Amino acid sequence: MIRIGSQLTFCSPERILKRSFVELDEQDTISGIFSLENGIVESAQTLFYDGILSAEIVSLKQNIIWKQNENSLKDFQYYDFSEIHSFEEIFKTDKPLVLDFGTNSPAKINNILPYLTRALDSFSIFDIIVACSYYPSLLLGKTAGLIERNKAKLILWENVDLIQKRLTIDTSIRQIN
After folding, report:
1. Tens of pLDDT along 64-96?
2. Rounded CA gap, 34 and 22, in Å?
3. Which residues are CB-neighbours of 105 under 8 A, at least 6 positions away?
4. pLDDT tens digits for 98-154?
5. What is the rounded distance in angstroms from the CA atom of residue 36 to the CA atom of residue 13?
């Protein structure tokens, strides 16, 4: 078992935990998600990180299954950042935002993130996590978010403005497990 903790854990849009940890077994299956706010004492084996934990980033563009169902994007505000070289400000609409980096590689995504800080200024960090992790998973028919008894690749969002809940020019991601 491994326990990974952070200031915030994004399980789903309805479940964002403060001071919590995710417990994973040897197969990267989530065996539990616990808030330290509820009186649970932090274990000595917990790796604690500064930032926000979330499920992995999902690229619709990378999925063959997706290419057969592209018409379901009509209900979303979709942006493909794998082919855009200049980023203009993106404004909120009544449609849910979906961000596609064309990859799930943290190194490649980290090359794009600093340029998106200004473009995504009207969105919270949670809106952004939903847009590149949660909604793409739902669109692919996969389990979205962090849920017990599901396999997970954890992403740590670092150098986020945790007070304003915004991206910064220094925001980066890395895979934890």
Report:
1. 666 656 667 888 999 988 876 667 889 999 999
2. 7
3. none
4. 999 999 999 999 999 998 998 999 999 999 999 999 999 998 888 999 999 999 999
5. 20
Q: Which residues, 6+ apart, have CB-to-CB distance to 156 below 8 Å?
A: 6, 49, 51, 52, 53, 173, 174, 175, 176
What's the pTM value of the predicted model, to 2 decimals?
A: 0.91
3-state secondary structure of 107: helix
CATH 2.30.40.10 in the chain, residues?
Answer: 2-56+145-175
Q: Which fold has domain 2-56+145-175?
A: Urease, subunit C; domain 1 (2.30.40)
State which H helix or E strand residue 10 sits in: strand 2-12
Q: How far is CA 96 from the centre of its chain?
A: 15
Are 117 and 137 within 8 A, CB to CB? no
